[in-house]
Specification:
The longest helix is centred in the C-terminal third of the chain and has 31 residues. It contains 4 helices and no strands.
């Protein structure tokens, strides 16, 4: 079976990056403190409904795929007969 290295790397990156909602909340606090143009621009980008929906969809897909891999691995272990036969 061929290794899925690029997919595994993508899923790991999605897991590491966390939710866009946390970034949005942190940027909102920064924007409230000072109206830095760059921070406002970043806040607007992560507040975009399409960006938030895309982040949720990516995280959902990555999670579903990981659960599927675990389920298949578990089924593969269960199908092996005792005694190596």
């Amino acid at each position: 079976m061929e290794e899925d290295t690029t997919g595994a790397a993508w899923r790991a990156g999605i897991r590491r990056s966390g939710s866009i909602e946390g970034d949005r909340e942190a940027l909102a606090r920064l924007v409230d403190e000072d109206q830095d143009a760059a921070e406002v621009c970043y806040y607007e980008a992560v507040s975009d409904p399409q960006a938030r929906a895309m982040n949720r969809a990516q995280r959902s897909y990555a999670g579903q795929y990981e659960r599927r891999l675990r389920r298949l691995a578990h089924q593969g272990r269960d199908s092996v007969e005792p005694g190596g036969g």
